[in-house]
Specification:
Strand content: 15-25%
Number of helices: 11
Structural class: alpha/beta
CATH class of the largest domain: Alpha Beta
Low-confidence stretches: none
Radius of gyration: 19 Å
Shape: globular
């Protein structure tokens, strides 16, 4: 795993947590082609090797913006072919984010518009600063959400609310996002990342194979019938039975101590 990216800052904390900061503050952390490639590479790497990381927090640099969406200055004058080529990168990036086996928490520190809102919605869950605002403004620009917005928002807030948000392009507050189910917690700006890290720490303290399997069972099971989901759950569950961590967890409980999980 690379430690330096042109548009991202990555910082390992407490051994098992990775903080990923979208780092284009001069452009409100808008996503250009390079950021799409950087995020795609980072997220796809975790599908192959987790490098001991057990949870990630994704945020933006500064207090103004989480991510203002696609960089329209870069897109100005693009040919249709160039636009579609760039968007193919964004499509692959968001699929890698959704499919990342490591839990990902979005810490939305400001505006999350367009693709920024879609990145947040593609994470496992979202914490937001009180002043954060969200919008999917694509229809006001002659396009539509194309990085998971039409799929992830209805799953978070319901079809009718998602239609209102997407078809109007109107912004909404962090409190709205909380009440509608997109955001899990709304926090003062100064508490946002610390609280996200605290939650990441709790996740990272748990058995990593168990966490990864539970995440996949929830996400994939939501796309299935109840009975197919139950069958998938048991397949995921059985992966834990022969692990060292399962034996360590039970032993630690009986010895009244904290378990020392190894991810094996």
């Amino acid at each position: 795993m690379r430690s330096e990216y042109e548009t991202l800052k990555v910082e390992r904390k407490d051994g098992h947590i990775l903080v990923v900061t979208l780092d284009r503050p001069e452009a409100s952390n808008a996503m250009n082609t390079r950021m799409g490639l950087d995020l795609m590479e980072l997220m796809e790497e975790f599908a192959i090797d987790q490098h001991g990381i057990r949870c990630m927090v994704v945020t933006g640099r500064g207090e103004k913006a989480f991510c203002a969406g696609g960089d329209l200055k870069e897109r100005r004058g693009m040919t249709d072919e160039e636009w579609q080529h760039q968007h193919a990168i964004y499509e692959r990036m968001v699929r890698a984010l959704i499919g990342c086996p490591v839990p990902v928490i979005a810490a939305v520190n400001g505006a999350a518009y367009g693709g920024g809102c879609e990145i947040a919605a593609a994470c496992d869950f979202v914490y937001a600063a009180e002043h954060a605002r969200f919008a999917l403004t694509e229809v006001t620009l002659g396009i539509m959400p194309g990085a998971g917005g039409t799929q992830n928002l209805p799953r978070a807030m319901g079809e009718r609310r998602a239609k209102e948000v997407i078809l109007t392009g109107a912004p909404f507050t962090a409190r709205d996002a909380f009440e509608w189910g997109l955001v899990n917690r709304v926090l003062p700006a100064g508490d946002l990342v610390p609280e996200a890290l605290s939650t990441a720490g709790r996740i990272a303290a748990n058995a990593p194979i168990s966490v990864r399997q539970a995440k996949q069972a929830i996400h994939r099971g939501m796309q299935m019938s109840l009975w197919d989901g139950l069958a998938y759950e048991i397949e995921a569950y059985n992966r834990m039975v022969p692990t060292e961590d399962r034996r360590e967890g039970v032993l630690a409980f009986n010895e009244k101590r904290r378990p020392d999980f190894k991810g094996r």
